[in-house]
Design a protein that fits this description.
single chain; 143 residues; mainly beta; two-stranded antiparallel ribbon; 7% helix; 43% strand
Length: 143
């Protein structure tokens, strides 16, 4: 059986480090991942995924990542159920990440505190390529 997932996206909030009653570190957060394809004239669509990290991986995420930072992760997709306060059964699907990586994006912090906003550094402009022209995107494939 195979259950591996690899994603790269932006954190939607600052991750918070928590501890279980047995002393294990845990954090949960969500990431926004843009879809690769969008129809002409439409905004690019974004999917949001819930992620859980344990132990050293959770500590790493909370130390080095903040809201808006790009993050790459690898893990497994897992589903679980629990009883809500109203007695109903809730179903949750989340990614349990075991490998977290930086994406190479340079981030400059405005202040040293965790709650500060971060901005990405300027990227050099891409060279223009006059040999290429934009092709209209069509839903019909030529083959």
């Amino acid at each position: 059986m195979l259950n591996r997932i690899v994603l790269m996206g932006r954190l939607t909030a600052n991750p918070e480090l928590k501890s279980t009653t047995t002393g294990k570190s845990v954090t949960s957060f969500s990431i926004a991942v843009e879809r690769n394809y969008n129809k002409s004239g439409e905004e690019r669509k974004v999917d949001f995924f819930n992620v859980v990290c344990w132990n050293y991986t959770a500590e790493f995420v909370c130390r080095y990542f903040a809201k808006g930072n790009m993050i790459a992760l690898e893990g497994k997709l897992q589903s679980r159920t629990y009883q809500a306060n109203d007695g109903s059964t809730r179903y949750v699907t989340e990614i349990v990440a075991d490998t977290i990586s930086f994406t190479g994006e340079r981030v400059q912090k405005a202040n040293n505190n965790k709650g500060s906003s971060s901005t990405t550094s300027e990227q050099p402009p891409l060279p223009s390529q006059p040999d290429f022209e934009n092709m209209p995107i069509d839903d019909d494939l030529p083959f």
